[in-house]
Design a protein that fits this description.
By secondary structure, the protein is an alpha/beta fold. The chain contains 10 helices and 15 strands. It has helices at about 5-15, 40-50, 65-75, 110-120, 135-150, 160-170, 200-205, 205-225, 310-325, 335-355, and strands spanning about 35-40, 55-65, 85, 100-105, 125, 150-155, 180-190, 225-235, 250-255, 260-265, 270-280, 285, 300, 305, 360. Strand 2, helix 3 (about 65-75) and strand 3 form a beta-alpha-beta unit. Helix 4 (about 110-120) runs parallel beside helix 5 and helix 5 runs antiparallel to helix 10.
């Protein structure tokens, strides 16, 4: 009978030629991205619930100004006291080695301060869109994360959505031919007039900041280029609800170096608007709904898009864990520079509304 030592030696020799792929072996567990959510409102709640199905991301902490919300989340998700913070003591997260990243899901005007504080605490940051109120703030945030040597990602969940990615693949492979036109329609009739989204100091604007950014961002990844000019027109029918600085409806157009053009609409005063349409010399693609929580529905000149629906926030957080922990690259970028490009376009659209002139964008 062979000794145990001989058996181990033989086993080592027999397996020497097998490639080592730790992610394929069930007895090797990938380390999760341990996340604290900042802002426990409606969307924060959606993200927290979706994370329960994640493979690589784990909800381990919360930051909120409302003690009752913290208590409820602790009970629901078994979050320890030491991983709970408010906005005053949040900087102490620097000493907490159980938290890798902070997901900022607070009102738009607070993103700048919260992201920079998280970066200074040495935590990776995921920030909801729009990343900031304007491009200057966005650049501050990119710089702060770069200086702290932490990653800054933006909550572009559609960048991981299967039907969206299939259209991007088809466009990259030339299946639509030369791209000629994109249309993006984003809108709904907003309710409570007292909500923060209609407060300029917290939202930084109106429909454009909230949902118009989907059409801006969608035009960029669908066309596959950066716009070189914008024009825009604002319409306001209810100045009581939509006060100064809070846009109700904006139509905007973008032009690209190739000659492709985009025509988009963002509104808080019309329902049934969630559609992307891409047209090329050889074919087309359509998504409707295009950016809702799903399922996304779509077709191309070839036929219906049939990729299965997956909860967007679950996929997003798993993919972002791979980006932060393993250095993965997203097919459509989700980093701070991606967020900054959208902010530069938003700034230009607002300028075009004020001036009535075409506004050039830096190449």
């Amino acid at each position: 009978m062979h000794s145990r030592r001989e058996f181990i030696h033989r086993l080592a020799i027999s397996t020497a030629g097998i490639p080592f792929l730790s992610s394929k072996f069930p007895f090797f567990d990938d380390r999760p991205l341990r996340v604290a959510i900042m802002g426990l409102g409606g969307y924060g709640t959606r993200v927290g619930e979706a994370m329960q199905s994640c493979r690589r991301a784990k909800l381990v902490g919360v930051i909120s100004g409302t003690p009752s919300k913290i208590k409820a989340w602790q009970e629901k998700y078994n979050i320890p006291d030491k991983n709970c913070y408010n906005y005053e003591n949040f900087d102490n997260i620097k000493e907490n080695t159980d938290i890798d990243a902070v997901y900022v899901i607070t009102p738009n005007a607070l993103h700048h301060d919260h992201v920079i504080r998280a970066a200074k605490a040495g935590k990776h940051v995921i920030c909801e869109k729009p990343m900031a109120l304007n491009a200057k703030e966005g650049q501050d945030m990119v710089n702060a994360c770069r200086e702290a040597n932490v990653k800054l990602l933006v909550g572009y969940r559609m960048h991981f959505e299967p039907k969206t990615l299939e259209i991007v693949r088809m466009r990259k492979e030339g299946e639509f031919g030369k791209i000629l036109f994109f249309q993006g329609l984003s809108g709904f009739k907003i309710g409570d007039p007292n909500q923060w989204r209609l407060d300029k100091d917290l939202a930084g604007g109106g429909s454009l900041m909230d949902i118009g950014i989907y059409a801006i961002n969608g035009a960029r990844y669908m066309v596959g280029e950066e716009p070189v000019w914008v024009t825009a027109q604002e319409t306001k029918t209810d100045p009581q609800k939509f006060k100064d600085g809070v846009d109700e409806t904006i139509q905007f157009q973008m032009g690209f170096q190739s000659g492709a053009v985009a025509s988009c609409l963002s509104t808080y005063n019309m329902n049934n608007l969630d559609r992307f349409f891409l047209n090329g010399e050889k074919g087309f693609a359509e998504l409707q709904p295009s950016t809702g929580y799903g399922p996304i529905e779509g077709k191309t000149h070839i036929g219906p898009l049939t990729q299965p629906h997956k909860t967007h926030q679950t996929v997003q957080m798993d993919e972002m864990a791979g980006i932060i922990l393993d250095g993965h690259k997203a097919i459509v970028p989700v980093d701070g520079m991606e967020g900054l490009k959208d902010l530069q376009i938003i700034d230009a659209i607002y300028e075009a509304c004020r001036s009535g002139q075409k506004v050039s964008l830096q190449a």
